[in-house]
Amino acid sequence: MVIMTLIIPPHPVGEISQHKGPPVFTQDERYKMVRAIKWVDEIVEGAPYVTTLETLDKYTSDFCVHGDDITLTVDGKDTYEEVKRSGRYRECKRTQGVSTTDLVGRMLLMTKAHHSNIGHSDYQQHTDNFGKGPKGHSPWTGVSQFLQTSQKIIQFASGQEPQPGDTIIYVAGAFDLFHIGHVDFLEAVSRLSDKPYVIVGLHFDQEVNRYKGKNYPIMNVHERTLSVLACRYVSEVVIGAPYAVTRELLDHFKVDLVCHGKTEVHPDKDGSDPYAEPRKKGILHTVDSMNSLTTDSIVQRIIKNRLLFEARNQKKEAKEMAVIQAMKRREEEKGKERAQAVL
């Protein structure tokens, strides 16, 4: 039997700022967000930015895992160089199109149609500012399109049906830029029962834009689906849920309780109360998450630090391009050596 523990070490804010630039979330927010990911068993607070064998041994880790991009220190060195040399490094493929760089750019673009504006001149300007350095284009930093597949959803979904005795709780919303405010709300919802089965209804992008306005949602419904499914307090997601919580929906999922946070409830298209049915049935419950963080708050953080984020991403790509050029030179030199050996 193989027992595997996933330990996630969120780096301290100071180290992130030194090597990558200003983080979007505070240190405590990042710790709590990572703890809420359903595949995480334990986190190590204050982990060093450069992963060493000493760190792996300290936490009895067999190896460390990273995506197939490269992570560099402020002086351009590979942060996993030591563990790679020792054979205690594993790599997994990153999800194409999921990029903090791109999300930051969407927040700064501030247009209603940013999801479909990839060929537009404004979006191209965002690409230039956030995905291109002065000497080329890195494959690890930049803008790409996220393509949802059934396999991705299967990987994230629990696949578990409600069991006898479960309390089926329904919540609905945009859950855009899934953040600690959402986590605290969903955790509070799950605590309403000893055996909660939490279903999250996600509204389509057009619906979110209708009641939120501006350039919301920042993330499209496919991206939001995976973000919510990754949360340990969520059992199931309804993709494209109706804005009004109807009798048909309640009956279909056999809902025992409908929850909403203390945020504003926007009326439906016809001006009606979207929670009229669960209110009439006496199953509507207002949940206070004790957290006032909103998606708009995060957008304001990004806007406030716009120039810092632009500089961060351009420096990041410049370092990556330098590594790419060095790798190319090494390959060329090896090719020449092999050719000379044949001669």
From TrEMBL:
Its EC number is 2.7.7.14. The keyword Repeat does not apply. GO terms for biological process: phosphatidylethanolamine biosynthetic process. Pathway: Lipid metabolism; Phospholipid metabolism; phosphatidylethanolamine biosynthesis; phosphatidylethanolamine from ethanolamine: step 2/3. It holds the Pfam family CTP_transf_like. Keywords: Lipid biosynthesis, Lipid metabolism, Nucleotidyltransferase, Phospholipid biosynthesis, Phospholipid metabolism, Transferase. Gene3D superfamilies: HUPs. InterPro entries: Cyt_trans-like, Ect1/PCYT2, Rossmann-like_a/b/a_fold. It is an enzyme of class 2 (transferase). GO terms for molecular function: ethanolamine-phosphate cytidylyltransferase activity. Residues 16-104, 171-262 form the Cytidyltransferase-like domain. One of its GO terms (cellular component) is cytoplasm. Belongs to the cytidylyltransferase family. NCBIfam families: cyt_tran_rel (TIGR00125). This is ethanolamine-phosphate cytidylyltransferase. It comes from Oncorhynchus tshawytscha. The lineage of its organism: Eukaryota, Metazoa, Chordata, Craniata, Vertebrata. The gene is PCYT2.
